[in-house]
Write a structure and sequence with these properties.
Strand order of the largest sheet: 2-1-11-10-7-8
Protein name: FHA domain-containing protein
Pfam families: FHA
Number of helices: 0
Shape: elongated
Organism: Undibacterium fentianense
């Protein structure tokens, strides 16, 4: 999971998880992250998370956006990067998942069973390192295999997927046996055996 640590005049103000595909930043109250300072534009910047990574974008702000002291329009964020907006600094932090697959473990089979729609009853074995599901422009997710773990990640779309009736965000999520995945009304079950 990634987050930004909000720093103002050298003092840490708060941490904010990047838990959606787009995190809007600016002075106006409607932003996801409100930075109340005159040097920050009403709609200053956005942090976009896609399958290619997490990017900071300047949204045509008056005073601009910098990363590590360099002015940017769009920048792929790396762990430890410092975003500067007016007097604010946002330190981008990636929390590392230390899961390691042991060669002694028996490799389990992951599969998706379609529960509703035209393909109800069909099963798909997750044999590739990454499997993509969904409809481009509406909702696309990927399921990545890491040893005996399967992580579902939002890739693109107008809506986020649901797992067990709970809407998930842009962060990868580990699937458990029996999890029900809802992609815009098409329900599927994740199975591990």
């Amino acid at each position: 999971m990634a987050k930004v640590v909000v720093i103002f005049n050298g003092q840490v103000q708060k941490d904010m998880n990047i838990d959606r595909a787009r995190l809007n930043i600016g002075r106006r109250p409607g932003n996801d992250l409100v930075l109340d300072h005159l040097a920050v534009s009403g709609r200053h910047a956005a942090i976009d998370t896609t399958s290619e990574g997490t990017f900071i974008l300047d949204l045509g702000s008056t005073n601009g956006t910098s990363v590590n002291g360099q002015p940017i329009k769009k920048h792929l964020l790396q762990d430890g990067d410092v975003i500067e907006l007016g007097k604010y600094q946002l330190k981008f932090v990636v929390e590392v998942d230390n899961y390691q697959f042991s060669p002694d473990e028996t490799l389990l089979v992951g599969k998706i069973k379609v529960l509703t729609g035209a393909n109800a009853g069909k099963e798909m074995i997750l044999s590739k390192p990454v499997t993509t599901l969904g409809s481009p422009g509406i909702l696309v997710v990927s399921i990545a295999r890491e040893g005996n773990r399967f992580k579902i990640t939002f890739v693109e779309g107008k809506l986020f997927p649901k797992i067990n009736s709970e809407t998930i965000d842009a962060r990868p999520r580990i699937l458990s046996h029996g999890d029900e995945i809802d992609l815009s009304g098409t329900k599927m079950e994740f199975q591990l055996s």
